[in-house]
């Protein structure tokens, strides 16, 4: 019989402020900079996941800031070809009582 295992993900346990604080404290106390960086990444990832979830009700400004932090942004996917669009005509002002037409 094979032993079934699951991949350990610390984010599953970072479900309260106390757990996050304890996790970060342990990383800082270790003095290991790679462990500290990993812990900060884990906490940031979990907080990001929560803030972008439906329950977090993310605002567009939050999404744009996150995308900018990763070097991304939004771009429209509208066609850019002018050939597919009819040319625009200049608007002519409507004649009013003071305008006289000369024939």
Structure description:
This protein is an all-alpha fold and 103 residues long. The N and C termini lie far apart (100 Å). The mean pLDDT is 81. The protein has a domain at 10-69. The radius of gyration is 29 Å and the shape is elongated. The protein has three helices and no strands.
Please give the structural blueprint.
Layout: H1 17-30, H2 33-52, H3 60-69
Number of E-state strands: 0
Give the helix proportion (percent range).
Answer: 40-55%
Shape: elongated
Radius of gyration: 29 Å
Overall average residue pLDDT: 81
Order of helices and strands: HHH
Q: Biggest sheet, open or closed, and with what strands and sense?
A: none
Number of helices: 3
Distance between the termini: 100 Å
How large a portion of the residues is in β-strands, by DSSP E? under 5%
Class computed from helices, strands and strand pairing: mainly alpha
| Uncertain stretches of 5 or more adjacent residues | none
């Amino acid at each position: 019989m094979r032993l079934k295992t699951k991949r350990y993900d610390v984010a599953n346990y970072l479900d309260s402020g106390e757990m996050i604080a304890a996790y970060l404290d342990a990383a800082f106390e270790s003095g290991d900079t790679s462990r500290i960086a990993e812990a900060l990444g884990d906490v940031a990832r979990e907080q990001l996941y929560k803030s972008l979830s439906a329950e977090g009700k993310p605002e567009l400004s939050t999404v744009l800031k996150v995308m900018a932090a990763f070097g991304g942004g939004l771009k429209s996917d509208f066609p850019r070809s002018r050939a597919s669009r009819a040319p625009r005509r200049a608007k002519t002002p409507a004649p009013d009582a003071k305008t006289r037409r000369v024939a």
